[in-house]
User: What shape does this take?
Amino acid sequence: MEVSPNLSEKAVYDLELVRRAVDKKDQKAYAELMSRYRDSIYFMLLKMINNKDDADDLTIEAFGKAFHRLHQYTPNYAFSTWLFKIASNNCIDWIRKQKKKMLSIDNPIGTQDGDEMHFELKGHGLDPSEVVIKEQKSEVMREVVAKLKPRYRTLVELRYYKEYSYEEIADELDLPLGTVKAQLFRAREFLENLLDTRKDTI
Assistant: This one.
């Protein structure tokens, strides 16, 4: 792997960590990369979306995507540049999706002919077949969550079933906030792997 001569000392050290993570599957190298950049990624995303919980989720998502593609990183530029690009692109995609969901249904939309169109909303209730599918998905999800190790299961239940914030989980379990975020990231990975094996039933 050819290293750019323009890399700073910090970037060269990051590259060592990346190589240990990719070549040796070194979990400590992954953890150190995350601890080196978690705060700066979080504050960048917080500026973009101005919501702490969403910035937390997107920070963990950004690391998940970066670690998944870590073998694709090339040291033509600093690891931090590559990571920030993944995080900002992921956040922009998220913002676009939120905007689509938030298309105003109260304001009329003008047509080319000068007319105005109004949207009529259907009731929020699911039809019977959707209710059955939703219940089946929920049941499968709970089965999968039950297969997680106890510490991961507790984290997932608090975050997604009881809708606790990261801070509330940290208080409840008497854990550092960083540990809660890192372990939830691992729990999501395990969940994704378990769900992949259950795709036919979902």
User: Anything to note?
Assistant: Residues 104-112, 116-124 have pLDDT under 50 and may be disordered. The CA atoms of residues 1 and 183 lie 31 Å apart. The longest strand covers residues 109-110.
